[in-house]
Amino acid sequence: MDATKHNFAEVFETFQKSLSESDFVSFDLEFTGLSDSNTGRDPFASASRYYSVWSQQVKKFAPTQFGVCTWKWIEEERYYEAKPFNFNIFKQQVSINSVTTCFLSQAASLTFLGENKFDFNKWVKDGISWISRSEERILLDQPYKPKRYFNDVDIDDELAEFIEPILVAIDNWLNEYPNQPLALDPYDPYHRRALYQEISKNYPNVVLETQGFGEERTIICTTTSKEMEIEKQVGFRKVLEAIVNSGKYIVGHNCMLDLLHTVGHFLADLPSQSSEFKQIMSQLFPRVVDTKFLVTKHPELRGILRETHLAGLYATLGLEQYSERPVMAYAPGYRRYQNEEMAHEAAYDAFLTGFVFIRSVSLILQGNPGSLAEIPEQIMPYVNRINLTGCDNHYYLSGEEEEVDRSSILYVTFPSHVTTGDLMREYSQYGRCRVRFLDDTSALIIFQVEKGVPFNASRVNSPKFQSIPYAEYVNATERQTGGFRRAIGSLFRSPTTKRSFQVETQVETQVEKTEEFATPGAYYSKRRREFHDEEVAVPRSAPSHRVQPRTQYRNRRLTDAHQKNLKNVSNGDGQKANYPENCTVM
Questions:
Q1: b/e string for 280-319 if b means 16 or more Cβ within 10 A?
Q2: Are the beta carbons of 270 and 260 closer than 8 angstroms?
Q3: How confident is the model over 132-170, as pLDDT tens digits?
Q4: Of 205, 288, 293, 570, whose CB neighbour count within 10 A is largest?
Q5: Helix 237-246, helix 8-21: angle, nearest 10
Q6: Per-residue pLDDT tens digits for 288-321
């Protein structure tokens, strides 16, 4: 079910009913971007440091869609019923301390959305607005300024005689039927303007709206108040408030950013400390399941589910051997995705997330789990543990994460002409290692040591390059004002960009070696940071080499799996006061 500002009230009422009947909900968000180019992702960061970087990033970008899918176990027919809701959201201007609503957009992310049929005109024109909890508190503290329409009509005796009985009618209406609209008879533009001026002056809590066309244009009066006006601006946040109040647990996939956006843009200002964020989460969403963490860490799933991105999981778990454990189907009226895959529409991905969760639980329990209104005991050790993309750590919402030993990692700086081979030749004499470039002049050297065996970094003494222990590097960068001096890895990554690349070579074309770059491999090692999403310019001496990033989502087609995974299931005033002829209570 697709929701815009035009049908939000109706869809929200339906959503509330569906939510109250559901066992749990799955969710997904889409955003205008992931990060700007001035910050970095540390593949070895602690969970708290990871939070500090990303919590700042989500404040800069805006959510574009929020997808929620409610799931209910139908005992009689023994299947799961899915009801996906796709909320298109666009934050309108909110008058708070004269601050303008602004957000960043990332070109790669917008391109990605466009390639997946995202409708930008619909987003801006029809998106549901909202105000956060903190913005609502500010508006409640501000003086109420009722809308003033006009103040340029001179009221003579004749005009005053015309207006007086209408004001009396409004008095009667406010005393007896203030919750029903009041329609005035049609008037010419001059008399309508005079009525707008005098009614707004005498009744600041009455809102006026002109409806109709030509000679039938009439004024509709409704009542309002400061609280009512603010309530109208809450908008989409009502959906999240309903989920919070329901007490249902939520399921996401690789959902750290989704959680930060959900909390930060709607429910609470993101604190600077990770521990404070965990306290907020314990009050809002005390139970969260991340299917990415579940499928990568549970021993029953790791050997079966090789691909752990959402589309790959959906395709694998939709294979015939899993099709009857258990069955899932869209409810009548919610079959928008029945015959069409719409990857990266938020509600579609929310459906995939719930599908993957239910099938994963069935594999762990080795049977149909039945109702999942309560999380099975076998899943509880994985609850509130969130995968951290690009990092070998995870985020634990219910407590402190285990401290990971980073003593075998060195931070190294060097001239820009240094290659991976140069670093490997220099540092491999101290033990088996691998290189992770940060930029053209810095890298991490990761030594491979047995678990529990301490690594003595002091014995690594290179005369060619400068190096310090990783812990010292982290402390130095965190002390600097303005954030990280160097990008650690690359925070600025589109969903399809990875650090590893495949190089396709045309066999029929010979590659000439040049003096500057002895081999294409040396060229690519030196120019790591010049790689882009689609194609990288290479020297004219090697025109046959084209670099493509390994993709996870894009170019994956789920048509066969999509059809196999679904199964169609067929179901099933008071009295009015006496008013002048020119007024009608509706």
A1: bbeebbebbbbbbbbbeebeebeeebeebbbbbbbbbbbe
A2: yes
A3: 999 999 888 877 776 666 677 888 999 999 999 999 999
A4: 293
A5: 10
A6: 999 999 999 999 898 888 889 999 999 999 887 7
Residue type, 455: F
- Could you please report the per-residue DSSP string of 23-69? SEEEEEEEES-S--TT----TT--HHHHHHHHHHHHTTB-EEEEEEE
CB hemisphere CA count around 581 (13 angstroms):
1
Reading phi first (left if > 0) and then psi (alpha if -120 to 50, else beta), residue 81 is in: beta
Q: Are strands 409-413 and 466-469 parallel, antiparallel or unpaired?
A: antiparallel
| Three-state DSSP class for residue 288 | strand
Q: How far apart are CA 290 and CA 353, in angstroms?
A: 9
Closest CA to 199 of 157, 169, 226: 169
What is the full DSSP assignment across 468-493?
EEHHHHHHHHHHSTTS-SS-SS-S--
As a whole number of angstroms, the distance between CA 250 and CA 258 comes to 12
pLDDT of residue 479: 65
Contact between residue 132 and residue 101 where contact means Cβ atoms under 8 Å apart: no
β-bridge partners, 68: 27, 85
Backbone torsions φ then ψ of 358, nearest 5 degrees: -65, -45
CB 545 within 8 A of CB 538: yes
Residue with tokens 């991105």: 309
What phi, psi does 420 have (nearest 5°)? Answer: -60, -40
Distances in whole angstroms, Cα of residue 183 to Cα of each of 188, 199, 225, 325, 421: 15, 13, 19, 58, 81
Smallest CA-to-CA distance from 71 within 19, 28, 14, 29 is with 19
For residue 453, the SS3 value is coil
Residue 349: CB atoms within 10 Å: 29
Residue carrying the six token digits 């589910």: 305
For the entire predicted model, the pTM comes to 0.74
Q: Which distant-in-sequence residues (6+ apart) come within 8 Å of 154 by Cβ?
A: none
